[in-house]
Design goal:
The complex is a heterodimer of chains A (308) and B (311). Chain A is an all-alpha fold. Chain A has 13 helices and 2 strands. Helix content of chain A is 69%, strand content 1%. A two-stranded antiparallel sheet of chain A has the order 1-2. Chain A starts with a helix and ends in a 9-residue tail after the last helix. Chain B is an all-alpha fold. Helices cover 62% and strands 0% of the residues of chain B. Chain B is flat and about 75 Å long. The chains are: A mainly alpha (308), B mainly alpha (311). At the A-B interface, α1, α2, α4, α5 and α6 of A face α1, α3, α4, α5 and α8 of B. Chain B: Belongs to the binding-protein-dependent transport system permease family. Chain B: It is found in: Cell membrane. Chain B: This is Multiple sugar transport system permease protein. Chain B: It is a multi-pass membrane protein.
């Protein structure tokens, strides 16, 4: 901190702002070095490092051996890799779709005539900031064989399945918990987007005798499309990182039914002692997320409306 | 801002509140003399409020069930769908506290989260100042690289980070918990957005008066940015407090475990005591509840403007 103050003091003699074409490189460096150093050491270097490590057989303790692309060859011949890729993609798409549909529905509802809209918004936001481990534990209790959900179903004369240990329902349960946990976040972003739509436009349209559906379809959704695109992209990126929910709810099971990319990555690296293989997985994850994000950006021209 | 019949009591940001159409409230008659159309509107509003209240109750039910399960005797947690057990066992909370060193987990959690948030904010403010107020070579390219890493899954970094921490002998330390995740581009990006909203003339006046750049940052810029600063601090805090994967990897000893890691230690070892686990979960969500209760307006503004973050 002291060094920064000193540099600032030294600037006193120089021109205040915009001093010449040369720019303010040294001053900038004084402000930038903590962030830039950390950025390079903890993000750029590990990102490159991950690629390098993926070319080694690298045990937790002991010396690494260079094996070239063998980890990637092994990965493409590993049936579990395809399973976790499939599970993660299914999770990501279903979760994102449900998340956005619910968030949009609730945001639109909160935008109608009702009281305490802010309070309800906070309620839906709550699970997004409470520890996900705690949230997942609560759902494990609710969804267990003789938990509340099945007791209630039993009361209605239905015998509930074992939600978390039946491969038919396990992934759906993980998705349900995840949507509950996080859609309130998007409710807030979409509410802000809705709030930015000028009331006059909707009022004018209403006077022209349009139905609520027409206004939603032809005014609200097009004007909300940048916010929808943003939430969709960020939700999808987050979805590919799913880890806590399957780890706490199902331990990836039954079998591999809820094993996901990051769970498999964690296990390979830190349970099976294969850091190189885990890094190869990490790079595949990175490529998949990049690809999906690029596709979303490419597709936005067809439906996102940026002119005001 | 005219006061209206509906909506003034709502707690949300003004921009998203719903107003009565101006035409229907010209003279604001007292409650007893509402015209039929207005009375109907008020009724619809309250029915709508009750309906969303019901949805919100169902939505919150997992938390309610958690709390009541925490008060039950262990053998009554499963089975009968009733909020209360045969007795209300407040001692579950003290038992949970002593079964594992839960106080220690909370203390660790707070320490790590406070220091982490502080470091994140200082770094973000300094970087954002440079990116928004200074001109230097490669500025826009470096910033683009920062923005690019916003879509980088952090899980890609954990293996090399672990190896790095291991080589430095920092595995199982507070430093390993705090430092690696204080440099995410998110804070810099968010603060830069806010810096750009403040006209540069404010600082120019101070600079011409002979203030140093750091002084203008501290006494001109930052006082106008207390809200976004506190939002960033709170989001960093929550991010650290709730983080699970990295502590799971880098921490071995219970003495250094943070809250989520401590919670997961409950299950497994000697079978799961669900009533105690739910008591511990209740304790662990309390800080978040308090933060939301105190800062909901600013948090919501932060989410709306920053959009992403939190974790």
């Amino acid at each position: 901190m002291a060094s920064i103050t000193n540099v600032g003091a030294a600037r006193r003699v120089a021109a205040p702002t915009g001093g010449g074409k040369k720019g303010q490189g040294w001053v900038a460096l004084a402000y930038l070095w903590p962030g830039l150093t950390g950025f390079v050491v903890f993000i750029v270097v590990p990102l490159v490092g991950s690629l390098v490590i993926s070319l080694f057989e690298w045990p937790l303790f002991g010396s690494p051996t260079f094996i070239g692309v063998a980890n990637y060859e092994k990965l493409f011949g590993d049936p579990t890799f395809y399973t976790v890729l499939f599970n993660t993609v299914v999770f990501a798409f279903v979760y994102t779709a449900l998340n956005l549909a619910l968030a949009l529905g609730i945001a639109l509802w909160l935008n109608t005539r009702l009281r305490f809209a802010g309070f309800w918004r906070v309620i839906f936001f709550l699970p997004a900031i409470t520890p996900m481990v705690a949230n997942a534990l609560i759902w494990r209790l609710l969804l267990s064989q003789d938990g509340l959900v099945n007791s209630l179903l039993g009361g209605a004369g239905v015998e509930g399945p074992s939600w978390l240990s039946d491969s038919q329902f396990a992934l759906a349960s993980v998705i349900a918990m995840s949507v509950w946990q996080s859609f309130g976040y998007n409710v807030i972003v979409l509410s802000a987007g809705l709030g930015a739509i000028p009331k006059e436009i909707l009022e004018a349209s209403r006077m022209d005798g349009t139905t609520a559906w027409t206004r939603l379809r032809h005014i609200i959704l097009p004007m909300l499309s940048p916010a929808l695109f943003f939430t969709m992209t960020m939700t999808m990126i987050g979805a590919f990182q799913v880890f806590v929910q399957p780890q706490i709810l199902t331990q990836g099971g039954p079998g591999e039914a809820t094993n996901t990319f990051v769970l498999y990555l964690y296990r390979n690296g830190f349970v099976f002692d294969r850091l190189g293989y885990a890094s190869a997985l990490a790079w595949m994850l990175f490529l998949v997320v990049m690809l999906i994000t690029a596709l979303q950006f490419a597709g936005q021209r067809r439906w996102v409306n940026y002119d005001k | 801002m005219t006061s209206d019949l509906i909506g003034t009591a709502s707690a949300g940001p003004a921009s998203t509140e719903v107003r009565m159409p101006a035409a229907s409230a010209p003279s604001r008659p007292s409650r007893g003399r509402l015209r039929p159309a207005q009375r109907r509107a008020v009724l619809v509003t309250w029915a709508n409020t009750a309906a969303i209240g019901l949805v919100a109750l169902v939505f919150t039910f997992p938390f309610i069930w958690m709390f009541f399960s925490a008060l039950k005797p262990e053998d009554e947690v499963f089975g009968t769908p009733s909020l209360f057990g045969s007795e209300v066992r407040w001692q579950n909370f003290t038992d949970a506290w002593t079964l594992v060193p839960f106080g220690r987990f909370i203390l660790n959690g707070f320490l790590v989260s406070l220091l982490g948030a502080l470091l994140s904010v200082v770094v973000a403010v300094l970087s954002a100042y440079a990116f928004s107020r200074l001109r230097f070579r490669f500025r826009d390219r470096i910033f683009l690289l920062y923005v690019f890493t916003l879509v980088l899954p952090q899980e890609v970094l954990v293996v090399p980070l672990f190896i790095m921490m291991n080589k430095l002998g920092l595995v199982d330390s507070y430093v390993a918990l705090i430092v690696p995740f204080a440099f995410t581009a998110f804070g810099t990006f968010l603060m830069r957005q806010f810096f750009l909203t403040i006209p540069i003339e404010y600082e120019e006046a101070a600079l011409i008066d002979g203030a140093s750049r750091f002084r203008t940052l501290r006494s001109v810029l930052l006082p106008q940015l207390t809200a976004p600063l506190s939002v960033l601090a709170v989001f960093s805090f929550i991010g650290y407090y709730n983080s699970y994967l990295w502590p799971l990897i880098v921490i071995n000893s219970p003495d250094l475990a943070t809250v989520p890691l401590g919670l997961s230690m409950f299950t497994g070892e000697h079978g799961t005591q669900w009533s105690l686990l739910m008591a511990a979960s209740t304790i662990s969500v309390l800080p978040s509840l308090v933060i939301v209760a105190l800062l909901q307006r600013q948090l919501i503004k932060g989410v709306a403007l920053g959009g992403f973050g939190g974790r």
